[in-house]
Amino acid sequence: MIEGWSITPTCEHGIAIRNTRAHLVIRNVTVTSDPQWGTAYECAAMDLTAASNVTVVRFRVPQGVDGIEIENSTSIRISEANVTDFTTYPSFLPHGVYVSGSTGVEIEDSRLPNVVSYRSSQVRVLGNNITGHVLITESDRVDAEDNVIGGPAGQYYATLQLFYSTNATIRGNALLRGGFDIEGYRLEDFVSHTLGSDNLVHGKPVRFLMNLSNTTLDATGLGQVLVLNCRDVSVSNAAIEDVEYGLDVAFSRNVTIRDSRIVNTGLVGLFVVRSRELTLFNSTLSGSRYALYLQYVDGALVYRNDFVGNVFDVAGDFSGLQLDYGYPVGGNYWDSYHGVDRCRGSDQNDCAGADGIGDAVHNVTFVGWTLGVDHYPLMSPVHPPQSSETGPPADWTPASLAVIVVACGLVAGLGFLWLRRRKQGRRPGG
After folding, report:
1. N or C: where does the chain have the smaller number of CB atoms within 10 Å of the terminal CB?
2. pLDDT digits over 249-302, tens only?
3. How confident is the model at residue 143 (pLDDT cuts 50, 70, 90)?
């Protein structure tokens, strides 16, 4: 038993337990770093490597770089830990509890900046107050239940992320910011999970549509919607904002998104991956880095929507993208379109009067590449702007947007190098 200690390391771990199966209890211990500790990347308050049968109760880390690192260990239980946010080191991504290559780990009733499970199994994250995020990546049978997850103030990063993982159980979590993000290459990365209807984003329910067909969802009052392995599904009246990914569609076919409003998302408004036959109409996508991101999508019909205040309106890897419904229904309203309306008709060559459709086509581009053509761009928004809808300020120019994109790329690159060093992954471009 290690009990009642106050430890101040310099450039090493506060407590290091390695290569032992001995039963151990660490209780009522405080690890406080000195001012020089912040320069030591690999230091943690506690390091458990190849250890088993360790119980940690009321472990405090009032300042430092990393909290508890658990690697290649089994049968570890942590409760009532309190690891402070490391705001004095804003360039770091500190861990509250980082679990790697381990099995049988339980983390409960603690206050932590974040929890990471990487290539681990049978990890339980129960009843914690997590001020940052929960990241579950390349893991199996991870339970995250009844946690309050805050997320960084003023930012929309997803605060509960399932990356390339299987058989997770996600129930009763309250996400105050950021929302959910599920990613993977295989179908089981999306549909092997148990995703409860009692999860909340911004105090609103989250709806996971999984393995359904011939379903209609009125998304009024929902905080987020994810459509996973569905067929012939229609989602309407969604009003989603202040999350990293507004509405996700994965491994689905013939999905219709209509009459919805997806605004102020940190990265993507509508993200569609490995799906076919998407229809998006009569909706507003505003204030995103990517309003519509299509990844390995075959066939998408997009018309009568407003694309306003986005850095990029459309991006991704896809085929069969159609950005208008022909004449006279027309295409979409793009705030990046600067054409005029003096003529009418399917060829826009009858100049006896205007018809609300631009006389010239609108090429939708991404960093210089033309991704699609709206042959009948609308001159006025389908939906008038609402006071709560915000995006980049009106006086931003394309040049200033380009500066922001370059800056985002530099930050993402630096973040990628740091995350590789810390063995923690994020979506490319995220």
Report:
1. N
2. 999 999 999 999 999 888 999 999 999 999 999 999 999 999 999 999 999 999
3. very high
Across 127-203, where does the E strand assignment appear? 129-137, 140-145, 148-149, 160-163, 169-171, 174-175, 180-183, 194-195, 200-201
Q: Is the pLDDT of residue 430 over 70?
A: no
Q: How far is residue 420's CA from residue 41's CA, in Å, rounded to a whole number?
A: 13
**pLDDT at 426 exceeding the cut of 70:** no
| Residue 132, both tokens | 């940052």
Rounded distance between C-alpha atoms, residue 17 and residue 49, angstroms: 6
Q: CA distances (Å), 90 to each of 11, 64, 86, 289, in order?
A: 19, 12, 7, 23
Q: What is the mean pLDDT of residues 59-82?
A: 91
Give me the residue label for tokens 């009459």. 259
C-alpha dihedral (136, 142, 146, 148), degrees to nearest 10? -20
* Angle, alpha carbons 258-260-265 (nearest 5°): 130
Quick one: average pLDDT of 198-219?
Answer: 96
Cis? peptide before 393, omega within 30° of 0: no
What's the distance, Cα to Cα, between the start and end of the chain in Å? 43
* CA atoms within 13 Å, Cβ hemisphere of 78: 30
3-state secondary structure of 422: helix
Mean pLDDT of 398-407: 42
Q: Residue 196: how many CB atoms within 10 A of its CB?
A: 14
Residues 6+ apart with CB under 8 A from 11: 36, 37, 40, 43
Answer yes or no: are the C-beta atoms of 258 and 277 closer than 8 Å. no
Q: List the structure tokens of 205.
A: 């329910």
The rounded distance, in Å, linking the Cα atoms of 114 and 159 is 9
